[in-house]
Amino acid sequence: MQINQNKLKQRLILLSFVASIVLTGLKFFAYYITSSNAILSDALESIINVIASGFAFYSIYLSAQPKDRNHPYGHGKVEFFSAGVEGALIIIAALFIVYEAVQKLMYPAPIENLARGSLFILFTILVNTAIGYKLLVEGKRTNSLALVADGRHLMTDSISSVVLILSVGLIMLTGYVWIDSVASILFGGFLAYNGFQITSRSVAGLMDAVDDVLLEKVVQTLRDNKKPDWIDVHNLRAQQYGSDLHIDCHLTLPYYWELQKVHETIHNFENILKSSHTGETEVFVHADPCLYQCCYFCRIENCPVRAHDFVQDIAWDAAKLVKNEKLYTEAKINIQE
């Protein structure tokens, strides 16, 4: 399944790369016949699409490579780097677009053949929207930041092109050429904002920032499949690198169990976590022995060493499970209350 996912991601990003080249050519042709600064801005931004899609294709190819001696955690983080490069290129394009728009606002030039040029832009909107939506859907399904970033870029390009069509229509209705440059400035600001969002998410991934949505998904899996033998889970950490998911935690088990039983329980624990994720999942579990304080919330029946009666369950949530301490402190507080 993992191999098929990687091939699908590569085919999608290759489609995006080829489409970006064709659509960029159409936009420059539209600029050639119209001399519209807004159309030129859209065409220049599409060059970024080509570069970004090419880099994203390489990053997805690299992220699919197996672990090796130099990369024991795999190559999935390259997708964060790819998204960061794409975001940075978008911001650079936005700054250039705003600069060119200000220049045209100060020194206006005639605009021609707007209707013909708009037809080419309309075609690019349809293609970009279709491919961008597909990339977003598959990127979220496969947890690929590179696909999501490229899909969002294409969708942003479509939105900007819609704004462009509207500004061209206003120019044709009113005859005010300055609308062309104002539309470009607004487009540049919108583009810079999206580029900043993509870059911020990329930096967060490279810095191993907590993904609250991912963490909650892991905690929900543990809640839904909780076994009486799982006395306590703490020091939980989860990180997504491309399609690869890495989870590590401490699992509290009865201290009197034999090593074989501990091994089997941990193995089942890992398999439950792996089954909840479609990509490659690596789980590291550190086994902790129970303490007498754990008896208050331990549900193991007929325990030969029980020191206290069971009192209550402790609700598992992300805030509790990420702490590097057993949950008996939480139980003690609740019991005292």
CATH class of the largest domain: Mainly Alpha
> In CATH terms, what is the fold-level topology of the largest domain?
Alpha-lytic protease prodomain-like
The secondary-structure element order is HHHHHHHEEHEHH
Outline the biggest β-sheet. 3 strands, mixed
Helix fraction by DSSP (H/I, runs of at least 4): 55-70%
Tally of strands: 3
Beta content comes to 5-15%
Question: What is the overall number of helices?
Answer: 10
How would you describe this structure in keywords?
transport; membrane; Cation transporter; Cation_efflux_CTD_sf; 9% strand; Alpha-Beta Plaits; 3 strands; 337 residues; Alpha-lytic protease prodomain-like; zinc efflux antiporter activity
Structure description:
The chain has 337 residues and is mostly helical. It has helices at 2-34, 37-63, 78-106, 114-141, 145-174, 178-206, 212-224, 259-275, 318-321, 328-336; strands at 232-241, 244-253, 281-289. The chain folds into two domains: 2-206, Alpha-lytic protease prodomain-like, CATH 1.20.1510; 212-336, Cation efflux protein, cytoplasmic domain (Alpha-Beta Plaits, 2-Layer Sandwich). Helix content is 65%, strand content 9%. Strands 1-2-3 form a three-stranded mixed β-sheet. Strand 1 (232-241) and strand 2 form a beta hairpin. It starts with a helix and ends with a helix. The model has no long low-confidence stretch (mean pLDDT 82). It is a multi-pass membrane protein. The chain crosses the membrane at residues 12-34, 46-64, 76-99, 119-137, 158-179. This is Cation transporter. Keywords: Membrane, Transmembrane, Transmembrane helix, Transport.
